[in-house]
Design goal:
The chain is α+β, with helices and mostly antiparallel strands. The protein is built from 16 helices and 24 strands. Strand 14 and strand 15 form a beta hairpin.
């Protein structure tokens, strides 16, 4: 929000007759813990009172609502050695994408404003306790079961359908959104008049119409000419960082996308692939110089990160390129266990996924990860690794290593992924197919047998026909098959 908009918002808030369950005024900072409790309480209160946001304002006297200014600087304040904003975000469950604004009300008075989204599906907890404001007092939510029940019973509006910018006139739609991109990607003729464009965008859920027009978050996140025009989705832009070595000590370059996904996706993927090193020798399958990583797999992983992110969580989708690996991550924990990424498909952002598939950015349901593993094997790379930690899902693809340089866990993970790939291709893994995956010579079949034996012991694969006595012709399937 611009300074003018923040001042207008504050002027509206101080007109409230008194503090409420979704608005609180304070003069100065007391403690980080108190702010955490207030964020929990205000988010829960805003949900109960059907407010899209709640507000915690520093610099206003609570009883008189006189704007006095504050010495508290929320953006730069630290809790120990950690930035306050990050400290708070990591102690809220579920994490909510609150914003902290600091602005000058006038030359004498500075304000710090927390804009807190209403919770959607469950009460927001801070340090394992949910709070609510009763009048001007913050209490634990479990003391008020009737209020708690209202939150759990609330029918959540999907992120994609929420409004990112409203009170617009027709010409604002083409001002803020690249409408041409939609028709180009869908291979549809561009309508002859403005209303035809708007009608199509309303049909797709990209625009809504009441007394005025509004752009939904789905419309903004896909077709925004500049994501900075849409505060609620700005932090969903993609961040790409190239590091000089194998750790994050030294950053070589960094890029943050400013366009909606539909406009910027091809440029993003091309830029990422342009940062990837070439490799003169990639096993025995590819002898000519090539990119170290398969470009088609990178495309799928980037698309998956955008589609499957938890849009209500704080944080950017990220691509991080190291000397020996590339990590692609998104905010949120997956709806299916990582072991089942190749065969199971559950999207928390169905409309976003549907549009990105129809526009050709990714594969049909459930057919993207098998392509990633197929090309990973073709390039004879180590198995991909999927880690869920600290509210993020991270997929790592590693640069080439010979079989001898893979550790036992990597060999087992590669064996499991190969068995999954075969199974979803309506085939079965065998000793021969695993030898082909690793380019093991026939006379060294015992090496593949040992990897299969270790994988069986870890229960990640199982025999297709346990009654068969033939080891030579044995076949194997994933543990879940």
């Amino acid at each position: 929000m611009e300074n003018r908009q923040l001042i207008e918002l504050l002027n509206e808030l101080v007109k409230q007759p008194h503090e409420s369950e979704w608005v609180e005024f304070k003069l100065n900072f007391h403690s980080a813990e108190e702010i955490g409790e207030r964020i929990s309480a205000i988010s829960n209160g805003a949900c109960i009172h059907n407010q899209q946001y709640g507000y915690l304002v520093f610099g206003v006297e609570d009883l008189t609502h006189i704007i006095k200014g504050t010495t508290f600087r929320g953006k730069t304040h630290k809790k120990g050695n950690e930035e306050l904003e990050h400290w708070l975000a990591t102690r809220l469950n579920p994490r909510i994408d609150f914003n902290i604004y600091e602005f000058d009300y006038d030359s004498q008075r500075r304000i710090t404003l927390f804009v807190i989204p209403a919770t959607k599906t469950q009460p927001v907890e801070f340090l394992h306790h949910a709070y609510i404001r009763v009048g001007s007092i913050t209490r634990k939510l479990n003391e008020f079961p009737e209020k708690q029940a209202k939150i759990w019973k609330k029918e959540s509006i999907p992120f994609e359908r929420e409004t990112a910018k409203d009170n617009l006139v027709a010409s604002d739609i083409t001002k803020y959104l690249s409408t041409e991109t939609y028709f180009d990607l869908m291979k549809l003729p561009y309508p002859s008049n403005q209303q035809g464009v708007i009608d199509k965008f309303i049909e797709e859920g990209l625009v809504v119409k009441g007394k005025t027009y509004g752009i939904t978050k789905l419309g903004a996140i896909l077709f925004a000419k500049n994501l900075k025009d849409f505060e609620s989705v700005e932090r969903k832009s993609v961040r790409v960082i190239v590091y000089r070595g194998k750790n994050k000590v030294e950053t070589e370059r960094e890029q943050i996308g400013i366009k909606g996904y539909a406009i910027g996706f091809e440029g993003l993927v091309n830029w990422v692939n342009g940062q990837l090193p070439a490799n003169e020798e990639i096993g025995k399958a590819l002898r000519t110089e090539s990119r170290m990583y398969p470009e088609i797999a990178i495309r799928e992983l980037v698309a998956n990160a955008l589609i499957h992110q938890d849009l209500s969580e704080k944080g950017f989708p990220m691509v991080e390129i190291f000397l020996d690996r590339i990590e692609i991550s998104n905010p949120g924990t997956p709806l299916v266990t990582p072991d089942r990424f190749i065969d199971a498909y559950v999207s928390r952002n169905e409309k976003l996924a549907d549009l990105m598939r129809r526009m050709g950015f990714c594969e049909e349901k459930g057919s993207g990860m098998d392509k990633v593993i197929f090309y990973n094997e073709l390039y004879q790379l180590p198995p991909i690794n999927i880690i869920v930690a600290e509210g993020r899902t991270r997929v790592t693809m590693y640069s080439y290593k010979s079989l001898n340089n893979l550790d036992k866990k990597e060999k087992i993970r590669a064996c499991y992924q190969h068995a999954c790939l075969k199974y979803v291709s309506n085939e079965k893994m065998t000793n021969q197919s695993l030898r082909d995956r690793f380019k093991i010579e026939d006379q060294n079949a015992a090496i593949a047998s040992r990897i299969i034996r270790d994988s069986l012991a870890e229960n990640v694969i199982k025999e297709d026909d346990p009654e068969s006595k033939s080891r030579k012709y044995a076949s194997y399937i994933p543990f879940w098959a």
